C-alpha cells in the first residue's frame, strides 16, 4: 500500500495546499511516485498544478459519491511521477449527499484500496505516497482523509494564533483513531511562512516546539514570494524557481518526511 498522509488544519491559509503541491513535487523529484488527492472544493491544489477546470472531467466529488473510481480521476501533471486527483466545487455538496450512508467516512479509504488493488493486478508499480489536501474544516471530507491516512501532517503558520485550534485538531485525530482508524498517527508539524525578521515568528517556533516537541519537523518553510507566485503560473515552486529558499526548504522537508517514514516502518 502507498503511504497516505492527510494534510490537515481546520484553519484556512496556513499552507496546506502549498505544502501538498510542493512536498508532493519534492517527493517525486527524489524518486517517489506521488498522488495528490484534492479534497478541498476550492480546488487550489489542482489549479496550482496546472490543471484547468475544463480538464477536470472526473473529480474527487465523483469518487466520493461512488460514480467513478479514483483511477479514473487521476491526471498526470507536468512533474514526472506526480499525479493529481482534481476537485471541483461539486465537492461542497458531498457531505449532505453521503451523510446517511453507512460507509460515509470510508469512501476515500475504499477508493484508495481499490486503486492499489487495480495497480497490483495489472502489474503496475502504483503510488508510493498519497497526499490528501484537506479543506479548512473538520468536516466529513477531512474525516475521510484521516480515515484513509496512515498519518496526519499539520501545517502551522508562524503567526500569533498558530496554536489556537491545534488542540481541537489533535482531539479530532484521537477520535478518528479510536472510532475509525487505529493506524492513525501524527506524522509531524511543519511550520510555514516563517519570517526571520519578525520576532513573533521566532516566538511561535519556540512555543510550537514546546507544545509539540519532536513532532515538529526541523525544516521550517520560510515566507518566500516565489512560493506564492508559483501557483498563478500553474507550477510548483520547484519548477518555477528551484533555487529559491522556499523550493529548497520543501526539498529538505521531503527528505525529512522520508526519514521519518523509514523510522516508522522499522519500529
Ligand atoms: P491553505 O491550503 O492552508 O488554505 P495555502 O497553501 O493556500 O493555505 O496558503 C495560503 C496563502 O499563503 C496562499 O496564497 C499561498 O500562496 C501563500 N503561501 C503559502 N506558503 C507560503 C510561503 N512559504 N511563502 C509565501 N506565501 C506562502
Ligand atoms: Mg488549501
TrEMBL record:
Residues 3-185 form the AAA domain. Pfam families: AAA_31. This is ParA family protein. It comes from Alsobacter ponti.
